[in-house]
Amino acid sequence: MSSALNKLTIQQAHDGLKKKEFSSVELTKACLARIKKRNSELNAFITVCEELALDEAKKADEMIKKKKPFDGSRSKQKMLLGIPFCVKDAICVAGARSTGAAKILDNYIPPFDATAIKKIREQGAVLLGKNNCDAFGHGPSNENSMYGPVKNPYDLTKVAGGSCGGSAAAVADNMCIFSIAEDTGGSIRQPASFCGVVGLRPSYGRNSRYGIMPMASSLDTVGPMTKTVEDAAILMEIMAGRDERDATTVGDKSIKSVKSIKNLRVGVPREYFESEGMDKEVKKIVEKKIKSVETHRNASIKIIDVSLPMTKYAIPVYYIIVPSEDSSNLGRLDGIRYGVRAEADNLYDVYAKSRAVGFPEEVKRRIMIGTYALSAGYYDAYYRKAQKVRTLIIQDFNRVFEQVDILLTPVSPFPAFGIGEKKDDVLAMYLADVFVGPAAVAGLPAISVPAGKTKAGLPVGLQIIGPRLREDLVLKFASLCEKTK
């Protein structure tokens, strides 16, 4: 059984550890063995913390053996105790190199955990390492990493998606039990779709952003990438809640359980299915999945055609707001306070040379675009106007959610594309986020669940979007979708 331990879900691993069917060390070694076997091909990890992982696993086994109190009760074992996981490299983890996939932070080891990671590690979860990603989250293909692209486990010639391609590939290839990632404009959902796993972007403010290397502060969220919807729900219960270090977090900690989804009004926005560049096979797979959910015998679901006319403006809005906030946030990376410092004769050259070699091309591009959009004479024409249109997009969603309870859309217009296929076409890359961008701009919860595979065997995801702070409904409906064929 030990050879298959890395294939377990959180719930299965928890049950097995509690019953002492295997140890955390055995479970961790199974994951590490898979990483050693496959990471040279997939490039899903930038840093593997083998020694730390085994040490943490041994401590977890000792706690289980001694039956120490966990959640205030000697009989209740913490849900994540002894379970191996990994983290997107743009999220700070104490004692583990965290580069953000950019060479400017090649030697950076944070002295603290991001709040979401702290909550998970306090449960006794075992850290395997840090996942490759597009540098600072900039990209939909994981080709903007300065540590090389991540390859798709289903086809090594295809991208794993971005920016959290390493997390998606690690979960899909059973290198870990789960991964914690970050979604600004689709970075969790799109790679989840490309790699056939579950990826949840929570509502903005549901989980703390403290310790997340900031990209666009008004859009960044941290969420789970898992093998099942059940696992995503488990992690959200642990991560969610108010954090005094993040003023944008909400006080409602609980992710309430929806007991029934009968008489549910499900909206299908036509704009998401009439998009230019929509792959016919992807459209067919998603529509088939929606039909199977509609006819599910244990649910009373009414499918309603709806319209979200402001959807077409989400990508232009996103690519003004995000670079603008990028240009501000990345100013802290100067080669002085932390990270890699270039040799130079004066302070200006230290800044210039450190950033020249430490930032990839896409990061530099976004900094320049954002600095321009925020500059005197252009702020009102670009950033302020984008924020006004963003409000219209939010109002668009609010109007539709008066008619329906939830929305179903594709995650991506196409399945995973070839490595290098779109790399030189910046606009084509930006349009890869056309279906995941709107929910991000509006701050809504959205999840990608597997919908099927193309004839070439590439996964396709279904996106479920809910009203703000209704992760409960999104997860419950995602669970139903997961069960339908």
The gist of it:
The chain is α/β, with parallel strands linked by helices and 485 residues long.
- Total helix count? 15
- Total domain modules: 3
Number of strands: 13
Cα separation of the termini = 28 Å
Structure commentary:
- It comes from Candidatus Magasanikbacteria bacterium RIFCSPLOWO2_12_FULL_43_12.
- GO terms for molecular function: ATP binding; glutaminyl-tRNA synthase (glutamine-hydrolyzing) activity; transferase activity.
- Heterotrimer of A, B and C subunits.
- Keywords: ATP-binding, Ligase, Nucleotide-binding, Protein biosynthesis, Transferase.
- InterPro entries: Amidase, Amidase_dom, AS_sf, GatA.
- The chain has 485 residues and is of the alpha/beta class.
- The chain folds into 3 domains: 238 residues, Amidase signature (AS) enzymes (Alpha-Beta Complex), CATH 3.90.1300; 138 residues, Alpha-Beta Complex (Amidase signature (AS) enzymes), CATH 3.90.1300.10; 66 residues, no CATH class.
- 38% of the residues lie in helices and 14% in strands.
- It is built from 15 helices and 13 strands.
- Strands 1-3-2-6-8-7-12-13-11-9-10 form an 11-stranded mixed β-sheet, with helices on both faces.
- Helix 2 runs antiparallel to helix 3, helix 9 packs across helix 11 and helix 9 crosses helix 12.
- The longest helix is centred in the last third of the chain and has 21 residues.
- The radius of gyration is 21 Å and the shape is globular.
- The chain starts with 9 loop residues before the first helix and ends with a helix.
- The model has no long low-confidence stretch (mean pLDDT 94).
